[in-house]
Write a structure and sequence with these properties.
Strand content: under 5%
Order of helices and strands: HHHHHHHHHHHHHHHHHHHHHH
CATH topology of the largest domain: Tetracycline Repressor, domain 2
CATH superfamily of the largest domain: Tetracycline Repressor, domain 2
CATH architecture of the largest domain: Orthogonal Bundle
Number of domains: 2
CATH class of the largest domain: Mainly Alpha
Distance between the termini: 68 Å
Amino acid sequence: MPSGSGAAASAADGKAQRYRPLPTGTHGLDPELVKRDQRERLQQAMVELIAAKGYPAVRIVDLAKLAHVSQPTFYSLYGDKEDLFVSAYEEIARRSARVVMEAYDTDGPHAQRVVAGMRAWARLAAAEPEATSLLVLGAFGAGPKALARRTRMLEELERAIHVSRDGAPASDPSDFTVKAIIGGVREVTAARLREGRAGELPALVDGLTAWAECYPRALPAGLQAPPVARRSAGGGVTAEPSERARRAEGRLPSGRSDLPRQFIVKSQQERIVDATAAIVAEKGLAALTIPAIAKRANVSHQTFYDIYSSKHDAFLGAQKVGMHQAVQITDAAYRRHPDDWPRAVAAGARALIDFLVSEPAHAHLSLVDTFASCPEALEIRSATIQGFAAYLAPGYELAGEEANVPAVAAEAIAGGAWQIMHHYIDNDCIAELGQAVPQLTYFALTPFLGAERAASYALGDSV
C-alpha cells in the first residue's frame, strides 16, 4: 500500500476509535458513564468540524452523525449548538490553563518561568492543533455565551499575568501592554494553526518571550489610554459615519442617465458594501440577508445579483474594500516620512486609527465580524496583518544586530495592535480609539528603539 494511502487509513482508524460508541442495548453500564462518553464524543466532533469549516457552518445533524449519537440524544445533553460549543471551549480552556500553569508555577526567576509556561503552551498547540485552534479562533464565530466566556477567560489570564509580572492583584486599565502581548502570542499561534504549521511553535518560544519581556513593567508617563468599559446591552455602532459613507447612501437619478456606466456600477457597489457593513455592525451577521442589503443600499435585487452572487460574497467584498482603504490610507501617511522610520510608523498608526473612527461600520466588520464569517474572511484578514507587519521590517536594520530583536516581533506586534483595536470596537468605544494612538505607537516601536525613544516618538517629541 502506498505511504499516503497508509497514512489516510491510519487517520481513518484513529477517527473511528475516537467516535466509537459504548455498547448499545442492555449492557449494565452506569447511565452517567454513557452520558459522559456521549458528551465527550460530541465535544470532539465540534472541535473537528469547526477546524474543517468554521462554527457558522456546523450543523447539529453533522455533529450527531460524526459523534454517532442521535439528534434526540444531542438535545437531551445540550440545549443547542452554542451550549455544546461552550462546553467544549471550557474543557479545552481548563486543560490548557492547567498545563501552562503547572509549567509556570515552579521555583526560579520570573523570566525562566515565563519561558517554561510558553513552552508548555507551544507543545500543547503542536500536539492538539484542532483543540487549540478552537480556543484561539473558534469562539469568535460562536454566539454571545461563547464570546462572554472567552472575555472572562482573557480577563482571568490578564489578571494572572499582572500578578506574576508586576506583583499587583489588579491591572491599570489605561495600560493595555499585557492585553497586547496576549494578542501577539495569540496571533502567532493562530497563524501557525491555520496554516498547518503548529509544529513550528516550540521553536518560536524564545523569540516570543524576548519580545514580551522587552516592555517595561511601568508605562511611560503620558501614554495612558482611555479605559474600555464592558459593552452595554444593545450594542450597535455609535460613531458618526464619514462624509464618504453619507454620500454613498444616496440613490442615483432613476431612468435614463448620461452618467457613465462604470460610474453607476461603482456607486451601486459602494452602496452595497456600505449597507452590508452597516447591517452586520448594527444587527450581527445572522441578520444579513440580500433583501436587507438591497433595501439599505437602494438597489434592486437584480442589481445586487449583477454585482455579487450571494450575501457571503457581499460580506467578503465589504471586507476587502474596507481593508484595502485602510491599507492605502496607512501607506500614504507612512510614505510621507521616507527618511524617518519611527515617525513614519507613528504617522501610519494615526492615519489608520483616524480612518477606522471615521468608518465605524467598516471597522466593526473588518476587525470584529470577520471572525464570525468564514475561512476565506480569515485568510483576507491574515494577509492584511502580514501587510501591516511589513511596515515594521525597517526597524530591524535600525535597531542593529546587537539589539537582537526577535524575527517574530513584527508579526506579534501587528497581532497585539489588532487585539487592542478589536477591544475598543467590540465594546462600542471606537470614538475613544483615537486617544490610544500614542500607546499603540509606543507598543510598535519599543522592541526596535527601546522604551524611552519609542515613548518620545509616540508623544511627538522626536521630530
